[in-house]
Amino acid sequence: MKKIKTRDRILQTSLALFNSVGEPNVTTLLISDEMDISPGNLYYHFKSKGDIVEELFDQYELDMLDLLTVPEDADISLDQQGFFLHLLFETVARYRFLYQDLVNVLSRYDQLRVRFKRIQKKKTSAFRAICESFRRQGTLIIDQEELDSLCEQLTLTACYWSAFDTLSHLDDRESVDPGRGVYHMMHLVIPYLAPADREEARLMSRDYL
Amino acid sequence: MKKIKTRDRILQTSLALFNSVGEPNVTTLLISDEMDISPGNLYYHFKSKGDIVEELFDQYELDMLDLLTVPEDADISLDQQGFFLHLLFETVARYRFLYQDLVNVLSRYDQLRVRFKRIQKKKTSAFRAICESFRRQGTLIIDQEELDSLCEQLTLTACYWSAFDTLSHLDDRESVDPGRGVYHMMHLVIPYLAPADREEARLMSRDYL
DNA sequence: GTCTATATTGTGATAGAC
DNA sequence: GTCTATCACAATATAGAC
User: Fold this and answer.
1) Ordered DSSP codes for B102-164
2) Architecture of B50-206 per CATH?
3) How far is CA B163 from CA A39, A143, B7, B97, in A?
4) Dihedral of the CA atoms A23, A27, A29, A31 (nearest 10)?
5) Annotated DNA-binding ranges (chains A, B) (predicted)?
6) Is the pLDDT of residue B104 over 90?
7) Low pLDDT (below 70) residues in chain A
């Protein structure tokens, strides 16, 4: 049995606490308390609370950029899109503390601002790539203005679904349900699908409920 | 010339500061400083910072509930819907500090949670009333599942557009643009409109850009 | 109503022994 | 690497004079 290094346990515990009670409400004392180590020990591994946040953001950024590398000219199926959305929402859920206090967190750690914006842009691009693939295949019937609006809407929903969802059960912030997010994302796209594909997509979307 | 009472100036200044730098970043000292009064004076009028937040929330709640009283069975026109959305986004923009740190604020002032949820529900109901009016008039062609999804999506967008928009210009949080929000809301509805009404709605939506 | 202290507390962070 | 002790500081809030 491998022993998890304290440094990694700090990251792990912090992430869990951030997600469940919100990053601004988590003190370094709470983290060390939860782990049964001393505050001093925590500061031996990280020179500040901000450093913990930043390192978690590094992980998030890696996961996201990796996920968002969508091939520009491949033919993407509805199935593949569903799978992609599923992974996307899972990643968002893992780091949901970021999204739940997004404006706040980014206003305090301004090195993260530009990096987050870059990820947002990549998200929009990924959605656009998928939609354009659908359009090329005749699955999606949409003009330019609608496409722009749709992609921005998808980005907004991908960003804020998790926060919107926790509003409904602010009492226990542990439970998350990425599925309903995927369902909503699909229903943004469905009205623009060719009639032939619409029913299939609707059936598929229900699997995520 | 009428002199504004200190108590009201505190509310006014707090709201402005909350909106521009975020409620969690605003201290009672910053408020009193900005107004050129002493911290003690501030605490003569409000026994805590939370009381200021709550009183601002009272105003917000009044404004919102008033706005959301949508007649259940009247025939609503596209124009009227546009006007409604415009007012809605203006109100959200006035109290945008609430939305920008929503999870955080509601987690610290838990008396506000249930009240906010109630307002959210009323919003969804209002959207549903409008959509159902459209449907009765033959303007909107949509089945039940799609309608549910659409109304929830409208609620999400109404809630988070302002926060999503400030992400783009986190540098100056003063400027707000409710127009683009209205535009997006309309584009959520447009795909479900009867073909005859779609073009009119698209033209109308562009006025809000 | 308004001011000038000042008390209080919580949090981030460091020093130095083990 | 880990602990105990402690500092420094900022923010909320109060007391009492004017």
Assistant:
1) HHHHHHH-HHHHHHHHHHHHHHHHHHHHHHHHHHHHTSB---HHHHHHHHHHHHHHHHHHHHH
2) Orthogonal Bundle (1.10)
3) 35, 27, 28, 9
4) 0
5) 27-46
6) yes
7) 1-2
Residue B69, pLDDT > 70, answer yes
Name which residue leads in pLDDT, A110 or B80. B80
CA count, 13 A, side-chain hemisphere, A84: 21
Q: What is the dihedral of CA A160, A162, A163, A164, to 10 degrees?
A: 80
Q: For B80-91, give one letter per residue: b (16+ CB within 10 A) or e.
A: ebbebbbebbbb
Nucleotide nearest to A44 (CA to C1'): D1
What CATH code would you report for A53-206? 1.10.357.10
> What is the pTM assigned to this prediction?
0.96
Predicted confidence at residue A1, as pLDDT, reads: 60
